[in-house]
Design a protein that fits this description.
This protein has helices at about 5-10, 15-30, 40-50, 85-95, 100-105, 120-125, 150-165, 185-195, 200, 210-230, 235-240, 245-260, 270-280, 300-305, 325-340, 345-350, and strands spanning about 60-70, 110-115, 130, 175-180, 265, 290. It has about 350 residues and is of the alpha/beta class. It has two domains: about 5-55 and about 340-350, Nicotinate-nucleotide-dimethylbenzimidazole phosphoribosyltransferase (CobT), small domain (5,6-Dimethylbenzimidazole Phosphoribosyltransferase, Chain: A, domain 1), CATH 1.10.1610.10; about 60-330, 3-Layer(aba) Sandwich (Rossmann fold). It starts with a helix and ends in a 7-residue tail after the last helix.
Length: about 350
Protein backbone atom coordinates (compact mmCIF):
# COMPACT_ATOMS: atom_id res chain seq x y z
CA UNK A 1 0.00 0.00 0.00
CA UNK A 2 1.35 3.43 -0.92
CA UNK A 3 1.88 6.45 1.33
CA UNK A 4 -1.00 8.29 -0.36
CA UNK A 5 -3.45 5.45 0.23
CA UNK A 6 -2.25 4.92 3.81
CA UNK A 7 -2.49 8.64 4.61
CA UNK A 8 -5.96 8.87 3.10
CA UNK A 9 -7.19 5.90 5.10
CA UNK A 10 -5.67 7.34 8.28
CA UNK A 11 -7.80 10.47 7.80
CA UNK A 12 -11.08 8.53 7.63
CA UNK A 13 -13.08 8.66 10.85
CA UNK A 14 -16.51 7.23 11.68
CA UNK A 15 -19.44 9.55 11.15
CA UNK A 16 -20.30 11.72 14.15
CA UNK A 17 -22.76 9.99 16.48
CA UNK A 18 -23.60 13.19 18.36
CA UNK A 19 -24.63 14.92 15.15
CA UNK A 20 -26.72 11.90 14.18
CA UNK A 21 -28.49 11.96 17.54
CA UNK A 22 -29.09 15.71 17.27
CA UNK A 23 -30.62 15.21 13.82
CA UNK A 24 -32.87 12.43 15.10
CA UNK A 25 -34.01 14.61 18.01
CA UNK A 26 -34.73 17.57 15.72
CA UNK A 27 -36.64 15.45 13.21
CA UNK A 28 -38.76 14.00 16.04
CA UNK A 29 -40.09 17.51 16.67
CA UNK A 30 -41.10 18.21 13.06
CA UNK A 31 -44.78 18.57 12.18
CA UNK A 32 -45.51 14.99 11.16
CA UNK A 33 -46.11 11.61 12.78
CA UNK A 34 -42.95 9.86 13.97
CA UNK A 35 -40.59 9.15 11.03
CA UNK A 36 -43.47 9.62 8.60
CA UNK A 37 -41.10 10.35 5.70
CA UNK A 38 -39.24 7.12 6.32
CA UNK A 39 -35.93 6.62 4.57
CA UNK A 40 -35.85 10.23 3.42
CA UNK A 41 -35.23 11.05 7.06
CA UNK A 42 -32.63 8.30 7.36
CA UNK A 43 -30.71 10.03 4.56
CA UNK A 44 -30.88 13.34 6.43
CA UNK A 45 -29.51 11.72 9.58
CA UNK A 46 -26.74 10.02 7.61
CA UNK A 47 -25.75 13.33 6.05
CA UNK A 48 -25.69 15.09 9.42
CA UNK A 49 -23.32 12.44 10.73
CA UNK A 50 -21.11 12.52 7.65
CA UNK A 51 -20.79 16.29 7.45
CA UNK A 52 -20.95 17.05 11.21
CA UNK A 53 -23.65 19.59 10.45
CA UNK A 54 -27.37 20.03 11.03
CA UNK A 55 -27.45 21.87 7.73
CA UNK A 56 -25.50 19.47 5.48
CA UNK A 57 -24.23 21.22 2.34
CA UNK A 58 -25.33 19.56 -0.91
CA UNK A 59 -25.46 22.35 -3.48
CA UNK A 60 -22.08 21.69 -5.12
CA UNK A 61 -22.42 18.32 -6.84
CA UNK A 62 -19.94 16.39 -8.95
CA UNK A 63 -20.45 13.15 -10.85
CA UNK A 64 -17.10 11.53 -11.59
CA UNK A 65 -17.36 9.15 -14.55
CA UNK A 66 -14.31 6.89 -14.77
CA UNK A 67 -13.51 5.02 -17.99
CA UNK A 68 -11.33 1.98 -18.55
CA UNK A 69 -11.05 -1.03 -20.86
CA UNK A 70 -10.68 -4.73 -20.16
CA UNK A 71 -8.61 -7.41 -21.83
CA UNK A 72 -11.18 -10.02 -20.90
CA UNK A 73 -13.47 -8.79 -23.71
CA UNK A 74 -11.40 -11.09 -25.92
CA UNK A 75 -13.32 -13.93 -24.29
CA UNK A 76 -16.63 -12.75 -25.78
CA UNK A 77 -18.14 -11.50 -22.53
CA UNK A 78 -19.75 -8.34 -23.98
CA UNK A 79 -22.35 -7.63 -26.63
CA UNK A 80 -20.50 -4.46 -27.67
CA UNK A 81 -17.03 -4.00 -29.21
CA UNK A 82 -14.28 -2.39 -27.15
CA UNK A 83 -14.09 0.75 -29.31
CA UNK A 84 -17.42 1.84 -27.82
CA UNK A 85 -15.55 2.95 -24.68
CA UNK A 86 -13.65 5.64 -26.60
CA UNK A 87 -16.79 6.61 -28.49
CA UNK A 88 -18.77 7.02 -25.28
CA UNK A 89 -16.07 9.15 -23.67
CA UNK A 90 -16.46 11.53 -26.61
CA UNK A 91 -20.23 11.36 -26.11
CA UNK A 92 -19.81 12.37 -22.45
CA UNK A 93 -17.64 15.31 -23.44
CA UNK A 94 -20.17 16.37 -26.08
CA UNK A 95 -23.01 16.23 -23.55
CA UNK A 96 -25.01 13.56 -25.34
CA UNK A 97 -25.06 10.70 -22.84
CA UNK A 98 -27.59 9.72 -20.21
CA UNK A 99 -25.35 10.98 -17.44
CA UNK A 100 -25.16 14.42 -19.07
CA UNK A 101 -28.94 14.72 -19.28
CA UNK A 102 -29.61 13.56 -15.73
CA UNK A 103 -26.69 15.45 -14.20
CA UNK A 104 -27.92 18.68 -15.77
CA UNK A 105 -31.33 18.09 -14.24
CA UNK A 106 -29.72 17.43 -10.85
CA UNK A 107 -27.43 20.45 -11.06
CA UNK A 108 -24.29 18.33 -11.07
CA UNK A 109 -21.02 18.85 -12.90
CA UNK A 110 -19.77 15.82 -14.87
CA UNK A 111 -16.03 15.10 -14.67
CA UNK A 112 -14.73 12.38 -16.99
CA UNK A 113 -11.58 10.46 -16.04
CA UNK A 114 -9.51 8.18 -18.27
CA UNK A 115 -8.20 5.51 -15.92
CA UNK A 116 -7.17 3.08 -18.65
CA UNK A 117 -8.99 3.33 -21.97
CA UNK A 118 -7.56 1.26 -24.83
CA UNK A 119 -7.79 4.05 -27.36
CA UNK A 120 -6.50 7.49 -28.22
CA UNK A 121 -8.02 10.25 -26.10
CA UNK A 122 -5.07 12.62 -26.37
CA UNK A 123 -7.16 15.29 -28.09
CA UNK A 124 -9.56 15.44 -25.13
CA UNK A 125 -6.69 15.49 -22.66
CA UNK A 126 -4.92 18.32 -24.50
CA UNK A 127 -8.12 20.36 -24.52
CA UNK A 128 -8.59 19.60 -20.80
CA UNK A 129 -11.98 18.05 -21.49
CA UNK A 130 -11.15 14.93 -19.51
CA UNK A 131 -8.79 14.11 -16.65
CA UNK A 132 -5.88 11.90 -17.63
CA UNK A 133 -5.17 9.27 -14.97
CA UNK A 134 -4.47 6.44 -17.41
CA UNK A 135 -2.65 3.57 -15.75
CA UNK A 136 -2.33 1.57 -18.98
CA UNK A 137 -4.35 1.18 -22.22
CA UNK A 138 -6.71 -1.39 -20.75
CA UNK A 139 -6.15 -4.28 -18.38
CA UNK A 140 -4.74 -7.64 -19.41
CA UNK A 141 -7.04 -10.60 -20.02
CA UNK A 142 -7.75 -11.99 -16.56
CA UNK A 143 -8.69 -15.32 -18.15
CA UNK A 144 -5.02 -15.69 -19.13
CA UNK A 145 -3.34 -14.15 -16.08
CA UNK A 146 -3.67 -11.23 -13.64
CA UNK A 147 -5.67 -8.26 -14.93
CA UNK A 148 -2.90 -5.92 -13.75
CA UNK A 149 0.17 -5.79 -11.55
CA UNK A 150 -0.15 -4.88 -7.89
CA UNK A 151 1.67 -1.64 -8.67
CA UNK A 152 -0.97 -0.80 -11.27
CA UNK A 153 -3.71 -1.62 -8.80
CA UNK A 154 -2.17 0.77 -6.29
CA UNK A 155 -1.84 3.44 -8.96
CA UNK A 156 -5.50 3.14 -9.97
CA UNK A 157 -6.62 3.68 -6.37
CA UNK A 158 -4.22 6.60 -6.03
CA UNK A 159 -5.70 8.10 -9.20
CA UNK A 160 -9.16 8.15 -7.64
CA UNK A 161 -7.81 9.72 -4.47
CA UNK A 162 -6.06 12.43 -6.48
CA UNK A 163 -9.19 13.23 -8.48
CA UNK A 164 -11.41 13.44 -5.40
CA UNK A 165 -8.95 15.59 -3.47
CA UNK A 166 -8.67 17.96 -6.44
CA UNK A 167 -12.46 18.30 -6.53
CA UNK A 168 -13.19 18.26 -2.79
CA UNK A 169 -13.10 22.01 -2.22
CA UNK A 170 -15.72 22.54 -4.92
CA UNK A 171 -17.86 19.50 -4.13
CA UNK A 172 -20.35 18.90 -1.34
CA UNK A 173 -21.80 15.71 -2.78
CA UNK A 174 -19.99 13.19 -4.97
CA UNK A 175 -21.43 10.60 -7.32
CA UNK A 176 -19.54 7.73 -8.88
CA UNK A 177 -19.92 6.64 -12.49
CA UNK A 178 -18.22 4.27 -14.90
CA UNK A 179 -17.69 3.48 -18.55
CA UNK A 180 -15.90 0.45 -19.95
CA UNK A 181 -17.01 -2.28 -22.29
CA UNK A 182 -16.79 -5.60 -20.47
CA UNK A 183 -16.61 -4.11 -17.00
CA UNK A 184 -19.44 -6.16 -15.51
CA UNK A 185 -17.08 -9.14 -15.86
CA UNK A 186 -14.37 -7.91 -13.45
CA UNK A 187 -17.10 -6.48 -11.25
CA UNK A 188 -18.76 -9.89 -11.02
CA UNK A 189 -15.38 -11.46 -10.28
CA UNK A 190 -14.75 -9.00 -7.44
CA UNK A 191 -18.19 -9.67 -5.97
CA UNK A 192 -17.64 -13.43 -6.29
CA UNK A 193 -14.35 -13.24 -4.40
CA UNK A 194 -15.20 -10.67 -1.74
CA UNK A 195 -18.71 -11.97 -1.08
CA UNK A 196 -17.67 -15.63 -1.29
CA UNK A 197 -20.30 -16.48 -3.87
CA UNK A 198 -20.13 -18.68 -7.00
CA UNK A 199 -19.58 -16.78 -10.24
CA UNK A 200 -22.79 -18.25 -11.62
CA UNK A 201 -24.75 -16.58 -8.82
CA UNK A 202 -23.28 -13.10 -9.25
CA UNK A 203 -22.94 -12.89 -13.05
CA UNK A 204 -25.61 -11.09 -15.03
CA UNK A 205 -26.23 -10.18 -18.65
CA UNK A 206 -24.33 -6.89 -18.63
CA UNK A 207 -25.08 -4.92 -21.79
CA UNK A 208 -27.62 -7.47 -22.96
CA UNK A 209 -25.97 -10.80 -23.77
CA UNK A 210 -28.23 -13.87 -24.04
CA UNK A 211 -28.36 -16.73 -21.55
CA UNK A 212 -25.76 -18.99 -23.23
CA UNK A 213 -23.36 -16.03 -23.37
CA UNK A 214 -24.06 -15.24 -19.72
CA UNK A 215 -23.18 -18.79 -18.73
CA UNK A 216 -19.98 -18.56 -20.76
CA UNK A 217 -19.20 -15.27 -19.01
CA UNK A 218 -19.73 -16.87 -15.58
CA UNK A 219 -17.48 -19.76 -16.61
CA UNK A 220 -14.79 -17.32 -17.77
CA UNK A 221 -14.95 -15.56 -14.38
CA UNK A 222 -14.72 -18.86 -12.52
CA UNK A 223 -11.68 -19.90 -14.54
CA UNK A 224 -10.03 -16.51 -13.97
CA UNK A 225 -10.51 -16.80 -10.21
CA UNK A 226 -9.16 -20.35 -10.19
CA UNK A 227 -6.17 -19.32 -12.30
CA UNK A 228 -5.26 -16.12 -10.44
CA UNK A 229 -6.24 -17.08 -6.89
CA UNK A 230 -7.10 -13.59 -5.59
CA UNK A 231 -6.84 -13.29 -1.82
CA UNK A 232 -10.19 -12.09 -0.39
CA UNK A 233 -8.40 -10.71 2.68
CA UNK A 234 -6.32 -8.40 0.46
CA UNK A 235 -8.47 -5.97 -1.54
CA UNK A 236 -5.52 -4.78 -3.62
CA UNK A 237 -4.74 -8.36 -4.58
CA UNK A 238 -8.34 -8.90 -5.67
CA UNK A 239 -8.25 -5.69 -7.69
CA UNK A 240 -4.96 -6.67 -9.32
CA UNK A 241 -5.94 -10.24 -10.15
CA UNK A 242 -9.50 -9.77 -11.47
CA UNK A 243 -10.33 -6.05 -11.37
CA UNK A 244 -10.29 -3.00 -13.61
CA UNK A 245 -8.57 0.36 -13.60
CA UNK A 246 -11.84 2.28 -13.38
CA UNK A 247 -12.96 0.08 -10.49
CA UNK A 248 -9.78 0.86 -8.55
CA UNK A 249 -10.17 4.54 -9.32
CA UNK A 250 -13.75 4.50 -8.02
CA UNK A 251 -12.46 2.86 -4.82
CA UNK A 252 -9.97 5.71 -4.47
CA UNK A 253 -12.68 8.29 -5.04
CA UNK A 254 -14.69 6.79 -2.21
CA UNK A 255 -11.74 6.68 0.18
CA UNK A 256 -10.80 10.30 -0.50
CA UNK A 257 -14.39 11.51 -0.19
CA UNK A 258 -14.63 9.77 3.17
CA UNK A 259 -11.33 11.32 4.28
CA UNK A 260 -12.82 14.75 3.55
CA UNK A 261 -16.18 13.91 5.19
CA UNK A 262 -17.99 14.17 1.89
CA UNK A 263 -21.01 11.96 1.16
CA UNK A 264 -20.65 9.89 -2.00
CA UNK A 265 -23.51 8.33 -3.94
CA UNK A 266 -22.41 4.94 -5.21
CA UNK A 267 -24.03 4.19 -8.57
CA UNK A 268 -24.64 0.71 -9.96
CA UNK A 269 -22.89 -2.64 -10.15
CA UNK A 270 -19.46 -1.47 -11.29
CA UNK A 271 -19.35 1.36 -8.76
CA UNK A 272 -20.43 -1.06 -6.05
CA UNK A 273 -17.54 -3.35 -6.97
CA UNK A 274 -15.31 -0.32 -6.40
CA UNK A 275 -17.06 0.25 -3.08
CA UNK A 276 -16.24 -3.33 -2.06
CA UNK A 277 -12.57 -2.65 -2.78
CA UNK A 278 -12.78 0.55 -0.70
CA UNK A 279 -14.45 -1.39 2.11
CA UNK A 280 -11.70 -4.00 1.97
CA UNK A 281 -9.08 -1.28 2.28
CA UNK A 282 -10.92 0.69 4.97
CA UNK A 283 -14.19 -0.66 6.43
CA UNK A 284 -15.07 2.72 7.96
CA UNK A 285 -15.30 4.22 4.47
CA UNK A 286 -18.74 2.64 4.13
CA UNK A 287 -20.01 5.27 6.59
CA UNK A 288 -19.80 7.85 3.80
CA UNK A 289 -21.42 5.77 1.08
CA UNK A 290 -25.03 6.15 0.00
CA UNK A 291 -26.21 3.29 -2.20
CA UNK A 292 -28.04 4.97 -5.04
CA UNK A 293 -29.96 2.09 -6.56
CA UNK A 294 -30.15 -1.65 -7.12
CA UNK A 295 -29.51 -2.52 -10.74
CA UNK A 296 -30.71 -5.49 -12.76
CA UNK A 297 -27.32 -7.18 -12.42
CA UNK A 298 -27.99 -10.21 -10.27
CA UNK A 299 -24.84 -9.77 -8.21
CA UNK A 300 -25.67 -6.23 -7.20
CA UNK A 301 -27.98 -7.11 -4.31
CA UNK A 302 -25.32 -9.48 -2.96
CA UNK A 303 -22.68 -6.74 -3.09
CA UNK A 304 -24.99 -4.24 -1.38
CA UNK A 305 -25.64 -6.74 1.40
CA UNK A 306 -21.88 -7.08 1.95
CA UNK A 307 -21.68 -3.29 2.26
CA UNK A 308 -24.73 -3.32 4.58
CA UNK A 309 -26.43 -0.78 2.34
CA UNK A 310 -30.05 -0.46 1.31
CA UNK A 311 -30.47 1.17 -2.11
CA UNK A 312 -32.53 4.34 -2.35
CA UNK A 313 -34.04 3.41 -5.71
CA UNK A 314 -34.96 0.27 -7.60
CA UNK A 315 -35.89 1.30 -11.13
CA UNK A 316 -34.41 -1.61 -13.10
CA UNK A 317 -31.51 0.59 -14.20
CA UNK A 318 -28.46 -0.97 -15.87
CA UNK A 319 -26.80 1.88 -17.75
CA UNK A 320 -24.03 2.85 -15.36
CA UNK A 321 -22.29 6.18 -16.05
CA UNK A 322 -23.48 7.46 -12.66
CA UNK A 323 -27.07 7.86 -13.88
CA UNK A 324 -28.69 6.27 -10.85
CA UNK A 325 -26.44 8.21 -8.51
CA UNK A 326 -27.37 11.62 -9.92
CA UNK A 327 -31.04 10.67 -9.85
CA UNK A 328 -30.61 10.17 -6.10
CA UNK A 329 -29.24 13.68 -5.69
CA UNK A 330 -32.87 14.83 -5.73
CA UNK A 331 -33.62 12.48 -2.82
CA UNK A 332 -30.60 13.70 -0.88
CA UNK A 333 -31.66 17.29 -1.45
CA UNK A 334 -35.21 16.50 -0.32
CA UNK A 335 -33.99 14.87 2.88
CA UNK A 336 -31.87 17.89 3.76
CA UNK A 337 -34.67 20.34 2.98
CA UNK A 338 -37.13 18.48 5.19
CA UNK A 339 -34.70 18.51 8.11
CA UNK A 340 -33.72 22.16 7.68
CA UNK A 341 -36.91 23.84 6.44
CA UNK A 342 -39.87 21.97 7.89
CA UNK A 343 -41.50 23.57 10.93
CA UNK A 344 -41.40 22.00 14.37
CA UNK A 345 -44.58 21.50 16.41
CA UNK A 346 -43.60 24.47 18.58
CA UNK A 347 -42.84 26.70 15.58
CA UNK A 348 -46.16 25.95 13.92
CA UNK A 349 -48.30 25.87 17.06
CA UNK A 350 -49.39 22.33 16.24
CA UNK A 351 -50.24 19.87 19.00
CA UNK A 352 -48.02 16.83 19.26
CA UNK A 353 -49.21 13.25 19.64
CA UNK A 354 -50.52 12.48 23.11
CA UNK A 355 -48.81 9.10 23.14
Amino acid sequence: MSDLISKTIANIEPTDSACREAAIEHISRLTMPPWALGRLLDVAVDLAGMTRSMEPPTTQRTAVVVAGDHGVVAEGVSAFPQEVTVQMVHNFVNGGAGINVLAQQAGAVVVVVDAGVAGDLSDLVEEKLIVNKRVAPGTSNMAKGPAMSREQAVRSVEAGIEVALDLANQTDLFATGDMGIGNTTPSSAIVSVLCDMPSETVTGCGTGIDEPARRQKADTISKAITLNKPDPSDALDVLAKVGGFEIGTIAGLILAAASRRKPILVDGFISTAGALIAQGLCPISTDYMLAAHQSLEQGHAIALKKLDKQPLLNLDLRLGEGTGAVLCMHIVDAGVRVMTQMATFDDAGVSESAS
